[in-house]
């Protein structure tokens, strides 16, 4: 059944009369190479939900034939199913979910994974709980009474998951006061409370994005037990972990301030090679502290460039060639010696501060200036 065609036909027969086309619920399912899970997922959703009041929207970023498998299985499925295959995968899982929310026509939008870690049978309970309690958001929770995270395999994953939940709840104490499982990928939201344009999804934690930026009214939770994966393997990775930290920074501090935070962390990490090289040259090799500071600075600039270019501005690298970026960064990192060397001479020669302490003070002063020039000039967006 193609709802768009049905609607077109209805419009043809009854002219411009308004036709009720709003389903009770749209199930949005993000998929990345999940071909083996589709049949079981649709089977169990069909058994759990009234076909006439439901639609299912898959948003797919697969590199395999998952979209074809979905279309094929959907032919025999009484619930209308659409597949939207994205070309660029922007925003990862979260970007896919938001895309699905744009396409959804249901009164309620239910988001769930394709791998059956979220039991399809719980979907009607989510919507019913939201309607009964007049809620905008219903979170499927592994931590609420009666829920469990049995399917979270391995001690390592449990620790990472539990730890990031605690840290996240601390960072967003107010928004998350009534959410025990902000990392959940299973939830239902009342479509009328959704502000899709405000969302800036980045990676896995779309529920967190939604709660923090959309500030839904009443939030309730429904416990469920997280199941083992049906088939295939998890798509989360180390890179996804880094993306999550970036997402946390963006949500909590905003884009510019989290870049400055990262620039600062990289800068602080550069203190180590800087001080070590200064100590080796000045103390061990007996080089005068001023030329030693100049050489130590170059070591640190190389270190900072490597980290800044790969971790912080990876996505902006294409604006300029490698040699263009490196030469500007190197020039900036050494230009600050014009400020730092006289200052250093003043602090050591005049104020009789120790060489390493004086070096540290001058580094702090040049930090803000270098951030602004990097952010606004070298890696201008
Ligand atoms: N479209 C799209 N694009 N879908 C994706 C992408 C992507 O880049 N990455 C993953 N998915 C889909 C998968 O195909 C699956 O249907 C769902 O998103 C969840 O991916 P998994 O790889 O199975 O995630 P997980 O089991 O490690 O994590 C899930 O459970 C966590 C709770 O422990 C997610 O729901 C997390 O958000 C949740 O925190
Ligand atoms: Mn999974």
From TrEMBL:
It is a multi-pass membrane protein. Pfam families: Glycos_transf_2, GtrA_DPMS_TM. InterPro entries: DPM1-like, Glyco_trans_2-like, GtrA_DPMS_TM, Nucleotide-diphossugar_trans. It is found in: Membrane. The chain crosses the membrane at residues 260-281, 287-308, 329-348, 354-373. This is Dolichol-phosphate mannosyltransferase. Belongs to the glycosyltransferase 2 family. Signal peptide: none annotated. The lineage of its organism: Bacteria, Bacillati, Actinomycetota, Actinomycetes, Micromonosporales. CDD domains: DPM1_like. The keyword Hydrolase does not apply. SUPFAM superfamilies: Nucleotide-diphospho-sugar transferases (SSF53448). Residues 263-378 form the GtrA/DPMS transmembrane domain.
């Amino acid at each position: 059944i193609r709802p768009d065609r049905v609607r077109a036909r209805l419009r043809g027969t009854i002219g411009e009369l308004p036709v009720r086309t709003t389903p009770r619920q749209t199930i949005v399912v993000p998929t990345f190479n999940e071909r083996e899970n589709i049949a079981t997922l649709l089977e169990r959703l069909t058994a759990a939900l009234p076909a006439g009041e439901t639609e299912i929207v898959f948003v797919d970023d697969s590199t395999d034939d998952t979209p074809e498998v979905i279309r094929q299985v959907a032919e025999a499925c009484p619930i209308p199913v659409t597949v939207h295959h994205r070309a660029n995968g922007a925003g990862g899982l979260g970007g896919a979910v938001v895309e699905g929310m744009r396409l959804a026509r249901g009164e309620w939008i239910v988001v769930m994974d394709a791998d059956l870690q979220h039991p399809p049978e719980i979907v009607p309970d989510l919507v019913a709980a939201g309607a009964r309690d007049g809620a905008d958001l219903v979170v499927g929770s592994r931590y609420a009474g009666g829920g469990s995270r049995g399917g979270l395999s391995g001690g390592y994953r449990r620790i990472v998951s539990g730890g990031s939940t605690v840290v996240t709840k601390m960072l967003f104490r107010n928004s998350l006061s009534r959410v025990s499982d902000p990392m959940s990928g299973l939830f239902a939201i009342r479509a009328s409370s959704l502000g899709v344009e405000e969302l800036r999804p980045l990676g896995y934690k779309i529920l967190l994005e939604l709660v923090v930026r959309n500030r839904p009214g009443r939030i309730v939770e429904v416990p469920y037990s997280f199941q083992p994966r049906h088939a295939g393997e998890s798509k989360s990775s180390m890179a996804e972990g880094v993306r999550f930290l970036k997402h946390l920074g963006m949500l909590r501090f905003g884009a510019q301030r989290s870049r400055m935070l990262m620039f600062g962390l990289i800068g602080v990490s550069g203190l180590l090679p800087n001080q070590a090289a200064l100590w080796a040259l000045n103390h061990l090799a007996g080089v005068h502290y001023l030329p030693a500071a100049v050489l130590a600075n170059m070591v640190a600039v190389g270190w900072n460039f490597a980290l800044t270019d790969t971790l912080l501005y990876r996505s902006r690298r294409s604006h300029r060639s490698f040699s263009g970026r490196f030469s500007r960064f190197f020039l900036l990192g050494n230009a600050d010696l014009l400020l730092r060397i006289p200052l250093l001479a003043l602090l050591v020669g005049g104020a009789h501060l120790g060489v390493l302490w004086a070096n540290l003070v001058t580094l702090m002063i040049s930090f803000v200036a270098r951030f602004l020039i990097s952010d606004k000039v070298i890696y201008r967006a």
